[in-house]
Amino acid sequence: MARSVLVTGGNRGIGLSIARELAASGDAVAVTYRSGEPPEGLFGVKCDVTSSEEVDLAFSKAEAEHGPVEVVVANAGITRDTLLPLMKEETFTDVIDANLTGSYRVAKRACRGMLRMRRGRIILVSSVVAMLGSAGQSNYAASKAGMIGFARSLARELGSRGITVNVVAPGFVATDMTAALDAGQQEAILKNIPLGRAATAADVARAVKFLASDDAAYITGAVVPVDGGLGMGH
After folding, report:
1. pLDDT per residue over 125-144, tens digit each?
2. 125 by DSSP, 3-state: which?
3. Model-wide pTM > 0.85
4. What are phi and psi of 69, to 5 degrees?
5. Are 198 and 151 in contact (CB under 8 A)?
6. Bridge partners of 163?
7. Fewer CB within 10 Å of terminal CB in the chain, N or C?
8. What is the C-alpha to C-alpha distance for residues 110 and 17, in angstroms, rounded to an integer?
9. Is 140 known to be catalytic?
10. Cα dihedral angle (96, 33, 13, 139), rounded to 10 degrees?
11. Which residue ranges does the record assign to the Ketoreductase domain (predicted)?
12. Topology of domain 4-226, per CATH?
């Protein structure tokens, strides 16, 4: 039976790949998007995760279309890279609000139906930067590291109700965002990746698919790196 799935930030990049991977395995997938158009073949809902009202409405629309959401992937996020001495306070708080507090809004709304069903999968998309750090990304790294503590606390809260909460931590992924880096920057990053290549969005999507599957029923509170070894030991 098809499960009702909601992927935030699911109209491009990693989020779209996750949505398509889960749809291909038979799930009924809804995606949220903040700008642009909904992806072809998927149920799209316009939603900004910095608004609790928009998150609530997105879930209501997904539930009306596919039934109670059984799998949620909190993927929506932003970057505002700036070195700390030059970083305005709103540059820091905007990233925290979208990435970390956005995950809180999504997970809290997802709990409503999952607690009634006594089952569910909550998967947060963090980053290797959460553990490794990255100059110019103190705001982004803080938001992504916060997601790990948030997820592990939720895993303890919700485990007795059959709900798992896990984190995927991608490394350097070939997306439109990373394509904006110049060749020298990309080469410097690749030198530190033992597997010697960037991840594809599909690499991340397959890890999410596993955590959403019955095969991962006894995994909760985990951080799964999909980084080619970049963050090894962190």
Report:
1. 999 999 999 999 999 999 99
2. strand
3. yes
4. -70, 120
5. no
6. 120
7. N
8. 21
9. yes
10. -10
11. 3-176
12. Rossmann fold (3.40.50)
95, 79, 74, 77: which is closest to 5 by C-alpha?
74
What is the rounded CA–CA span in Å between residue 138 and residue 141? 5
- Is the CB of residue 41 less than 8 Å from the CB of residue 19? no
Instruction: Classify burial at 134, counting beta carbons within 10 Å of its beta carbon; exposed 0-12, middle 13-18, buried 19 or more.
Output: middle
Question: What spatial distance separates the first Cα and last Cα of the chain, rounded to whole Å?
Answer: 39
Q: Which residues pair with 98 in a beta bridge?
A: none
Q: If you ran DSSP here, which 8-state letter would residue 129 be given?
A: H
Going across the sheet that includes 69-74, the strands are: 43-46, 28-33, 4-7, 69-74, 120-125, 163-170, 223-226
**Beta strand segments in the chain, E:** 4-7, 28-33, 43-46, 69-74, 120-125, 163-170, 223-226
Q: What is the DSSP letter of 3?
A: P
User: Tokens at residue 158, please?
Assistant: 């919700």
pLDDT in tens, 170-216: 999 987 767 777 788 788 889 999 999 999 999 999 999 999 999 99
User: For helices 13-24 and 201-212, what crossing angle results, to 10°?
Assistant: 50
Token pair listed for 60: 């209501």
**Which residue's entry shows tokens 């931590």?**
169
